[in-house]
Amino acid sequence: MRCPYCSHTETQVAETRESDEGDVVRRRRKCTSCDKRFTTYERAEIALPAIVKRSGARVEFMPEKLRGSMQLALRKRQVSIEQVDAAMERIQEKLLASGLREVPSTRLGELVMRELKRLDKVAYVRFASVYRSFEDVDEFSRLIKEI
């Protein structure tokens, strides 16, 4: 760690503390050249994969967009915010566990449909009808019979 005062590259850790939640480490450092002290913070950087759209465009994964899509499908359904949060966590965990840097939007859509099917069948049908862009009524009927 470079000293912010004199730019010397050698510093010593004088004190280390974890935050109450355990997700941040605070370190007090001392420069070996100028003897000044400063604080640094360490936190884990979690990089979710980019989403590759059908057009080939790559976009950053946006949890708020995922939440909005799920809430739209779940509109006026008896599903709690906690259940939606848990479903979103499971989706994000699967994306992280894949180890991929890029995930096709079709894969993300399938993960969302799987979670919605667990939460609420009506929301699942709503989401699937938009996501799969059914060409005719027969395709839609097959989806409903599947449930």
From TrEMBL:
Cleaved signal peptide residues: none
Coiled coil: none
Superkingdom, taxonomy of origin: Bacteria
Domain called ATP-cone: residue spans: 49-139
Cofactor dependence: Zn(2+)
A Pfam family: Zn_ribbon_NrdR
Key words of the record: ATP-binding, DNA-binding, Metal-binding, Nucleotide-binding, Repressor, Transcription, Transcription regulation, Zinc, Zinc-finger
Zn-finger segments (unnamed): 3-34
InterPro entries recorded: ATP-cone_dom, NrdR-like_N, RNR_NrdR-like
Note accompanying the cofactor annotation: Binds 1 zinc ion.
Annotated NCBIfam families: transcriptional regulator NrdR
Biological role: Negatively regulates transcription of bacterial ribonucleotide reductase nrd genes and operons by binding to NrdR-boxes.
Name of the protein described by the UniProt record: Transcriptional repressor NrdR
The organism of origin for this protein: Ideonella azotifigens
Lineage of source species: Bacteria, Pseudomonadati, Pseudomonadota, Betaproteobacteria, Burkholderiales
